[in-house]
Amino acid sequence: MKKRLLYTVVLASALFVPTFASASVIQVDGFGAGGWKSDDTRSATGTNLVGTNNTHAGRPGQAPTAADDTAIATQIQFVAGPAGSTYGGAVSMDGTSSNSGKSNFSVINTTTGFDAASNLVGPTSTFIATYDWYGQPNPTTRTLALKLGIQSTAWGTGVGESQNGFTATRSGESVWDLVLVFLPATSDNAWTTVSTDHDSGNWNLFRQAGNGFFTTAPDTVAKTLDAWAADATYGSLLFGADALVTSVQFGLGSSQRDSIAYVDYLQTNLLNGGDVINFGPAAVPEPGSLALLTLGLAGLAMRRRKVAA
């Protein structure tokens, strides 16, 4: 089943996404590897967990502790299973026993950003993200979010800017003021490959918790990125000049108790030049799965050559 899903989705992606520049493998097998750490991870009681080593951008006013590192490591783990993934191993995120809990895993760039947000949208968009994930419901079906944190065109601490007089109330939220959240279809006890780009997939938009700068609530209806770019209120804020993608995240959000989600790999033009980011302990890819992934990438490259011709 896994190989058939991978073959179908990757080849179908050739119909609407740009190709990747390369397909080397970057191993992320622990906190800090490849720049990946926790952000906005909360215990089952809703307590913000801010570790000395395992957290990126801590919660202002909360001292990082080694105890929180330990707690984070119980909710976000680098594991060998479930079996059947493309590269073997995964990072697991635990929804905890309460809807107040949350597990979030991210990489950030607060200086130059990973890319101009304007490159996420439009007919010349270079954005693509493909990842392999597995949902383990217990007992309720859940889903795992891919998130893009954006420093909008209003970012800054000056008068009339989004951070003026505001202090982030959650770890990780000090590096963006708006976040786009992609929720794929559920995947119960099976590895599923998901792809999204500028005009496919459903994205919700959220503001920093407690920040009243954005007085108009984002549209509650999920849209493609291109549709958000056309939004009268948020389009120019998200994708205008100087807006940056500063955070790429996976998260099993609040209200997803008694569930565990796994990510095998992520491949996106935003990170590592499009190299595959393999989460979990290093393992040799299954020959059949790797061959299908290579075939899919070759299909993307062939499509690009035909378009260029």
Q: What is the arithmetic mean of pLDDT?
A: 83
Helical residues, percent: 10-25%
Q: Strand content of the residues, in percent? A: 25-35%
Low-confidence stretches: 1-17, 287-309
**Global geometry:** globular
Order of helices and strands: HEEEEHEEEEEEEEEHHEEEH
How would you classify the quaternary structure? single chain
Q: What is the number of helices?
A: 5
Overall number of strands: 16
N- and C-termini, Cα separation = 36 Å
Biggest sheet descriptor: 7 strands, mixed
Structural class: alpha+beta
Radius of gyration from CA coordinates: 19 Å
Number of domains: 1
Protein model, in words:
Keywords: Signal. InterPro entries: Ice-binding_C. Pfam families: PEP-CTERM (PF07589). It comes from Candidatus Nitrotoga arctica. It is a single chain. The protein is α+β, with helices and mostly antiparallel strands and 309 residues long. It has one domain. The protein is 17% helix and 27% strand. It has five helices and 16 strands. Strands 1, 5, 6, 9, 12, 15 and 16 form a seven-stranded mixed sheet that branches. The radius of gyration is 19 Å and the shape is globular. The relative contact order is 0.25.
Short summary of the structure?
The chain has 309 residues and is of the alpha+beta class.
Keywords summarizing the entry:
309 residues, disordered C terminus, alpha+beta, 5 helices, signal, Ice-binding protein C-terminal domain-containing protein, 7-stranded antiparallel β-sheet, 7-stranded mixed β-sheet, disordered N terminus, Ice-binding_C
